[in-house]
Amino acid sequence: MTSVTPTSTAMPTEGQHGLKAHSDGDWDRTVPVQTRSERFRSVNVADFPEVDGKEHVWKLSPVATFADLTNGEISGAVPTLELHEADGVDVSWIARDDERIGAAGIPEERASANAWSSFEQALLISVTGEDEKVAGVTRTGLGTAPRAAHTVIEAAPNSRGLVVLRGTGEARLTENVEILVGEGANLTVVSLQEWAEDGVHLASHFARIGRDAKLKHIVVSLGGKVVRVNPSTHLAEQGADIEALGLYFADAGQHLEQQVYVNHDAPHTRSRVTYKGALQGAGARSVWIGDVLIGNAAVGTDSYEQNRNLVLTDGTRADSVPNLEIETGDIEGAGHASATGRFDDEQLFYLQSRGIPEDEARRLVVRGFLMEIVQKIGDAELEERLVAALEAELAGER
Amino acid sequence: MSTLEIKNLHVNVETDQGTREILRGVDLVINEGEIHAVMGPNGSGKSTLAYTIAGHPKYAVVQGEILLDGENVLEMSVDERARAGLFLAMQYPVEIPGVTNTNFLRTAKTAISGEAPGIRQWTKDVKSAMDDLRMDASFAARNVNEGFSGGEKKRNEILQLELLKPQFAVLDETDSGLDVDALKIVSEGVNRAHSNTGLGVLLITHYTRILRYIKPDYVHVFVAGRVAEQGGPELAERLEEEGYDRYVTEAASAE
C-alpha cells in the first residue's frame, strides 16, 4: 500500500489562473427553481402581477403584442359557434358556478387567469357512448377586440370520441380549455389553429385523466400572428395515458408556441409527447417547452417526450426545451429528445437521384416529416384537410 | 446504341483536413447491354466514381468529362441525370420518414417518364416486381427504407431499378452485407433488368462473390483513384486467388 501525501484543497484566491466567481447560479439572490407542481396557481387575475416579459412562463413570448389579453379588460361574452354535431356529443352553455369548472386545473399565468376572471358562460362539450364519433366546434369571426373563453370537454366513463376545437378568421382570444376524461374513456381532442394572419390566441388546456383512461391531445397551429397553446395533463389515476401530439408550421413573422406539461401522479401511467414543426421565412419563430414531472406516487411510469424542428430557410428561430423531473426511481422508463435541423441533403439527393425535381423533393420530405403527426389523428376527413393545408403552407400560399 | 463515357475524370472531395484528390484520371466506356465490374480495395475511389456519376454535391469534378450519348452529364442536375437514364443503387440508402414507398415510386416514375403511369398497369407492375424480389406486400405502405434491414434496403434499390427502367445503372457495393439468399435475389433482379431493357451496368464491388451471379463482360481493377488493370471475367478469377496486394504495392511504389 502506498501512502498519499495530502495536498491543499483550498481554492486559489480570486484572479489566480484566471479564476473568477462564476456568473450562473447566483443562488443567494434568486428564487430557486421550483418543482413544476408547486408553481403558483389562481383563478383570479389580480393575484398575478402585470406581465412584463421577464417571467419564466413569458420570457420567450412577444408579450408586447398581446398586452391587452394579459393586462387589459376583456370581453367574456359568448361567441357564435359553428357546430359539427354527432350522436353522443352534446354542446351547451353552463354557468360559472358549475362544479366541473376548475375540476381539471386552474391558471398558472396571467393571460389564463384573465380569461378565467372574465368569461360569462362556459361551453360544455360532453361525450357519451362507446361508439366512435367525430364532433367539432369552430370559432370564427371573433373580431379584433380582446375576448375570453372557457370550454369544458367531458368524456363520460368508457365513452369514445374525437372532438375538434377549431379557430379561423380574426381573433384576439385568451382562453382556458378543461378536459375531463372519465374512467376507461378514450378521447381525442384536436385544437386546430387556422386564424387569420394577424390573429392572436393564448390558450391553456388542462386535462385530468381518470383510471385506465386515454387522451390523445393534438395541437395543430398553422395560422395566426401569435399562437400559444399550452396543454397541461394530470395523470391523476392508475393506468392513465396521454399521447400529446403537436404540429406547427411557422411562416415569416409568425410566433407559434407550446408549453407542454405532463404530471405523472399515479402508478403505471404513460405519456408520449411528440411535437414537430417546420419553420420557413424571416422571423418565423417557434417555442416548445416540454415539462414532465414523475411524482412520488407514479411508480411504473413510462414516459417519453420529443420535439423536432425542421428549418427550411435562414432567419428563423426555434427554441426547444425539454425538462424532466423525477421524484421516484421505480419507473419503467423516462426519456426525452430534442432536435432542430436543417433540411437533410442526403434525403434530397436520394429523391433527386430518382428523377424527382428539387422543389418537389423538398415538398415530399417536409410533408413526410409533418405527416407522422397527421397520420396519428385517426380521422380520415380531418387528415385529408390538414394535408391540403400543409401543401398550401409549403407552396407559400398562406 | 447508348453509350456512357467517362474520360480522364479527376475528382476532389473537401474534408476537414482540406481538399483531397480521390479520382486521378479515370477512363471507362460502357455500351448498352454491357456489364462492367469495377473492383478494388477500400479507399480506392470506387464509391466516389459512383456518386460523381450521379451528381452528389460533395464531389467536385476538377477535370475530365462524363458523356451520355454525347451529352454532357456534368452540366445536368441530379434529377436531370436520372431522367436522362442514369441510376445509382446506393450502398446506404437513406430513410425518408413519412413518405410511403408507393407514393415515392409513383412520384419517381412520373418524373422520369414525364407523365403519371396508368394506375391499373402500374399497380400490377409494382406488385409483380415486388413478388420477383420476394418483398412482402407490406413494404409498399411502409415509409421509404424506414426500419428496413440492410438486405431489405438493397432489394428496395433493385425494385426501383426494375420499375424506373434506366439505360445505365451504377450498383455501389450492392452485395455488401447480404447473405447468400438475398444476394441471389438481388442478382436475379439485376439480370432481369439487364435482359429486359438492355441495361448497361457498372457493378462496383469489393468482392468477387457477386460475380458468380452477375457475369461481367469486363473487369476493371481500381487502385488509388484510377484503373490499374482491365480485362475479361478471367481477371476477376485471378483477383479471387491473389487479392489486391499486387496492385496496392505497385501503386505505393509509383508514388
Task: Record the SSE blueprint.
The complex is a heterodimer of chains A (398) and B (255).
Chain A: H1 67-71, E1 81-84, E2 89-95, H2 110-118, E3 121-127, E4 134-140, E5 147-155, E6 160-169, E7 172-181, E8 186-195, E9 200-209, E10 214-223, E11 226-235, E12 241-250, E13 255-264, E14 270-279, E15 285-294, E16 302-311, E17 317-326, E18 333-342, H3 345-352, H4 358-374, H5 380-394
Parallel strand pairs in A: 3-5, 4-6, 5-7, 6-8, 7-9, 8-10, 9-11, 10-12, 11-13, 12-14, 13-15, 14-16, 15-17, 16-18
Antiparallel strand pairs in A: 1-4, 2-3
Helix pairs in contact in A: 3-4, 4-5
Chain B: E1 3-15, E2 18-31, E3 35-39, H1 46-54, E4 59-68, E5 71-72, H2 78-84, E6 86-89, E7 96-100, H3 101-113, H4 119-132, E8 143-144, H5 150-164, E9 168-172, H6 180-197, E10 200-205, E11 218-223, E12 226-231, H7 233-242, H8 245-254
Helix pairs in contact in B: 5-6
Count of discrete domains of chain B: 1
Structural class of chain A: mainly beta
* CATH class type of chain B: Alpha Beta
List the helices and strands of chain A in order: HEEHEEEEEEEEEEEEEEEEHHH
- The domain count of chain A comes to 1
The largest beta-sheet of chain B arranges its strands as 6-9-10-3-11-12
Question: Which strand order spans the largest sheet of chain A, edge to edge or round the barrel?
Answer: 1-4-6-8-10-12-14-16-18
Q: Could you name the CATH topology of chain B?
A: Rossmann fold
Q: Explain this structure to me?
A:
By secondary structure, chain A is mainly beta. Chain A has one domain. Chain A is built from five helices and 18 strands. Chain A has a nine-stranded mixed beta sheet, covered by helices on one side. A nine-stranded mixed beta sheet of chain A has the order 2-3-5-7-9-11-13-15-17. The termini of chain A are far apart. By secondary structure, chain B is of the alpha/beta class. Chain B has one domain: P-loop containing nucleotide triphosphate hydrolases (Rossmann fold), CATH 3.40.50.300. Chain B has helices at about 45-55, 80-85, 100-115, 120-130, 150-165, 180-195, 235-240, 245-255; strands spanning about 5-15, 20-30, 35-40, 60-70, 70, 85-90, 95-100, 145, 170, 200-205, 220-225, 225-230. In chain B, about 45% of the residues are buried. The mean pLDDT of chain B is about 95. The interface of A and B includes residues 356, 364, 370 and 372 of A.
